[in-house]
């Protein structure tokens, strides 16, 4: 009876050891493969599936942004942008937005001033 208990314990310990060995070796292999597949010059920013075999990708290669269409038989570069140009355009849009908000604030303050003047004139007429 004791020998059967020892056998069961040995089988259980062996099973747990094999499971732990598989777990840690899988983690090690995953870490090594992610380092091998990583590139400093190419980065997939985003991708979307358009259907069964068609996809659209935004890829950055050496500070140039590409919009790529892929349908499993071939890939087509739809558009190509320089990263610096995009940053400049975003800066221009931001400055235009700030300019518009300043104009709106000025118009609102003029409206408030006009309303205040009208209210003062109305009060003066009432007296």
Automatic annotation (TrEMBL):
Membrane-spanning parts: 6-24
Keywords: Membrane, Transmembrane, Transmembrane helix
This protein's name: Flagellar protein FliO/FliZ
Source organism of the structure: Proteiniborus ethanoligenes
